[in-house]
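Morning. Coffee machine broken again, so started the prediction first thing and wrote up yesterday's gels while waiting. Chain of 137 residues, entered below exactly as on the submission form.
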Amino acid sequence: MHALPPTDINDAPNVALGQTLEQPLLAVESCLNLLGEALLRRDTQAIELHASALHQALAEAIAMFSEAARAGQVPPNLRHRLVQAGGRVAAQRESLARATAALDRAIDVLMPGEATGLYSAMGKSERKTLGGGSYQA
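Came back before lunch.
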């Protein structure tokens, strides 16, 4: 039978701080999971809901971690998890940016904008002429 190592009374604040930091980090991780699922389902309402919740959870977590970091008391395992969460946020942001760009390209193809005054696909100028085909400067 092994005895547990004695706990140092000075470690109690670090344990409490770790538990305090754990809660906002769990909220961020949960929001990331829910947002990822909504993105896979392409559920726009859920995406907006979870993105908003993630924004709030990140703001709270960053505030708490920043305060703890100033005191030099962020446990390494929680710091690592926060870095991983930041990486997941960046990956989801990049994925969303790519999807948005693809959607914009598809919309441009399906609904072309106004005439530019340049040549069309037929090779003729799309400029509007005034009476008899003369150009006005």
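The chain has one domain: 13-110. Going to sketch it on the whiteboard this afternoon.
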